[in-house]
Amino acid sequence: MSVNAPNVAVVFGTVMPPQGDVVELQVHLGCSNEVSSFEVVLANFDGKYSPNGENAITAGLDGSVSVGRGASCPLLMTCRVETVKYTSTPAESYVHVGGRCWGERLFRRVVTKTYTNTKGENIVKDLLNYYVGLSHVRDSTELVEATDTTYSSLNYEDTPVFDVLKYVAESADKQGVIGFDFRVAPDGKFEFFSRGTKPNSTSLAERIEQSEYHRDISRVRNKITVYGVADKSIPANKYAWTESLSCADGWWSATAGTVSVDTAVKVKGSGSIQTYAEGLSYAGCIFSLETGSLVDAESYPSLNLWLNCDATFNGNVTLTLYDGSGRMATHEVAVGTGKWFQVQVGVGSKNADQWQLEAGFDWTHIWRLRVVCWFNEPNTGAFWVDGLFFGGKRYSATVEDAGSQAGFGLREQVEVNEELWSDAECTGRAEALLANLKAPAESLTLRSTVLDYGATPILAGDTVHVTLPTEGVEGNFRVLSVEYRVNAASQTLETTLQLGREAPLMADYVYALRAKTDSLSRYKTARR
To answer: Sign of dihedral through CA atoms 74, 76, 80, 84?
Structure first.
């Protein structure tokens, strides 16, 4: 099969080496998990590209790389020179120039910022506009596509921009499909788009000279457990137990004085529980849970309540828990008077040293909580309790696929995601992971020295149609990366495509001058 010879044009600053100087050129195009990179070897006759040469090439220059066939030489990359290396023998001299596309700017900056109730695309645009300086508009067309995801609260401290972009791309959805890709296009514009929405019309038919097809079950996971933020509570509405003297879970009563609902003095909601004592040494109330509503403090390891005491009290408060058999655990706390104070006390066996326990106390069946506020001597006064709940449990969900387990055995994955604030959000994340991971990964490596893409090169993030009759493979594959390699001696342009059938959640595949690790230093929490 006859094909046109490769056509190459490289530019570094104002230096435009002729194609005759290009000994070898390698261009790697990536997206989402990496940025594109290049390396070119130039014949350095008379040291013209050396530091003191007439066409010196230095690190830091912006430039471009174009590769095609015949008269066609489309732009592959707007780049930045990052490394320059010189090699020579008595008879020959070469300069090796390497770098990355303008996406290297994504690694220069870190973000310290909180995004509250912000759409995914607006986070991306903010990062590009104020931290990176990459254009995302081409001919008045916005290149950052809208998402259907609003992030309630993302708090970043000294987090690399690239890390934030990856999180949004991996978690945002559009029309029910999770996953976006992002890349810096050949013209240096930043594109952010739903995965699988960039079809490439280049025909691969009869152009594939070598193929490797893989089905790999090592990634298969068919039982997924996802934990969210540790803010799940009993009751789910953290003020429900102090809105009235009786509720679905239990009831309030007095142990010294009288109890009532006070709608005027409260932290939140419709009211609080007031305990009033007249001429007594202390005032006390107790909240008792219904038989079917006892609390497992091992699962909910934090007791929380708000207290407000009249100035007639001395500020000493005794909290007493009763288990299902009436055994007691006691904790003393000091609070101020005249305003609301939030009290948080660890419960459960891991926090047992904070309590005075009766032998055999059962943390898994908490029946009652008694609150006692003390006078220094018999006196009169009132105290209020609001926002009583047991908390500290992580939201969670577990989903499974029986068919996958039957075929490949039980294969589990556990994820902790501090941005998930309900069991429903955990379920959604778990179902998305299960759909992604329950089947074997399909991957293809295709090589061709006769592929002619004309003026529309195949880019990472594109979708191409592949037919391999021998392997029984036919369908659309997502381009994970593309490598173009020009060899002047053999006058060949070899194209290597790394393809995937799924949206892989895998470690970065990065070539040559890439970010060295995905374990980027970061501190990220979710807050509401």
So the answer is: negative
**Looking at the predicted structure, is the pLDDT value of residue 526 above 60?**
no
CB-CB contact of 418 with 525 (8 Å): yes
Tell me whether residue 464 is in a domain: no
Same domain for 419 and 293: no
| The pTM of the whole model exceeds 0.70 | no
In a domain, 38, yes or no: no
Asked if 481 contacts 28 with a C-beta cutoff of 8 angstroms, the reply is yes
Q: Is residue 35 part of a domain?
A: no
Residues 284 and 423 in one domain: no
Give the pLDDT of residue 502.
Answer: 62
Residues 109 and 134: beta-carbon distance below 8 Å? no
pLDDT at 174: 83
In tens, the pLDDT along 94-120 reads: 999 999 999 999 999 999 999 999 999
Report residue 32: phi and psi, to 5°: 65, -55
Name the maximum alpha-carbon separation found in the chain: 107
Tell me the average pLDDT across 400-424.
Answer: 92
**What single string gives the DSSP state of each residue in 204-220?**
-TTT--EEEEEEE-TT-
Average pLDDT over all residues of the chain:
91
Compute the distance between CA of residue 85 and CA of residue 97 in angstroms, rounded to an integer. 7
Contact status, residue 199 vs residue 463, Cβ threshold 8 Å: yes
What size, in residues, is the chain? 528
**pLDDT value, residue 500:** 86
User: Looking at the domain assignment, is residue 374 inside a domain?
Assistant: yes
Residue 349 to residues 62, 288, 299, 363: CA-CA distances in angstroms?
Answer: 62, 21, 10, 7
Enclosing domain of residue 423: 223-229+396-437
How many domains does the structure of the chain reveal? Answer: 2
